């Protein structure tokens, strides 16, 4: 399987786990606590498979950067948490950085 598809799977699992972590209310809600634990476990397992091909620094930059963007959007849309201009500009830089890594880096595993 393509390592970048694995990385995408790891990101999706991490986003589900992080969203569930908020909803677990400090691990007092059993359903969301279980989803959190399973999501993070799956995320790290799938990330470990992607790391067989993708250099760890590149994979982690993409994994964490895209995760930050998606979680921020989920928090804004579903949890009604606000994003100020500085947050939006910062996320723009993250997206720009991930694009630069993927388009121009010789160590990106492409």
Automatic annotation (TrEMBL):
Keywords: Cell membrane, Membrane, Transmembrane, Transmembrane helix, Transport
GO function terms (MF aspect): amino-acid betaine transmembrane transporter activity; antiporter activity; choline transmembrane transporter activity
Entry annotated with the keyword DNA-binding: no
Family, similarity comment: Belongs to the drug/metabolite transporter (DMT) superfamily. Small multidrug resistance (SMR) (TC 2.A.7.1) family.
InterPro entries per UniProt: EmrE-like (IPR037185), Small_drug/metabolite_transptr (IPR000390), Small_multidrug_res (IPR045324)
GO biological process terms held by the UniProt record: glycine betaine transport; xenobiotic detoxification by transmembrane export across the plasma membrane
GO cellular component terms, A-Z: plasma membrane
Transmembrane segments: 27-51, 58-79, 85-104
The UniProt record lists the keyword Transferase: no
Name by which UniProt lists this protein: QacE family quaternary ammonium compound efflux SMR transporter
Membrane topology, from the record: Multi-pass membrane protein
Coiled coil stretches, renumbered: none
Subcellular location: Cell membrane
């Amino acid at each position: 399987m393509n390592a970048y598809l694995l990385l995408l799977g790891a990101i999706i699992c991490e986003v589900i786990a992080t969203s569930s972590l908020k909803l677990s209310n400090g691990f007092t809600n059993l359903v969301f606590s279980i989803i959190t634990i399973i999501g993070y476990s799956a995320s790290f397992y799938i990330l470990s498979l992607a790391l067989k091909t993708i250099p760890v620094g590149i994979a982690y930059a993409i994994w964490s950067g895209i995760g930050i963007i998606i979680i921020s959007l989920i928090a804004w849309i579903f949890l009604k948490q606000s994003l100020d201009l500085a947050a939006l500009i910062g996320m723009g830089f993250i997206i720009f950085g991930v694009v630069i890594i993927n388009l121009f880096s010789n160590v990106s595993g492409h």
